[in-house]
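DM from R.C. (forwarded with permission)

"hey, sorry to bug you on a friday — could you get me a structure for this? deadline for the figure draft is monday and I only need the backbone to look sensible"
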Amino acid sequence: MDDRIKEHLKRLNKYYLRLSDTRKLGKEIFIQEDLYQASSERYLQIAIESCLNIGNRLISLYQFREPGVMLEEGLKNTIEYFRNFVEGVRV
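My reply, with the result:
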């Protein structure tokens, strides 16, 4: 496995464990303490960033095309398919 991906997975696990610890506090304490809410929000943010970084790394390693490009090409192919279908029905 790629070293960068391993590092992001380690970080992601750390963030998950910290969020799990916060969950053990209980709803009442969590709601009363702004510090717990702010730290949880931050851990969620950096966990999401790690997931995005892993995805971008996989795209880079395996030379996947960007989703926007794939969607655009898929749409063009679909339109072309229906044009050909309509042309065939007209005959």
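R.C.: lifesaver. Residues 3-64 form one domain.
me: no worries. DSSP finds four helices and no strands in the chain.
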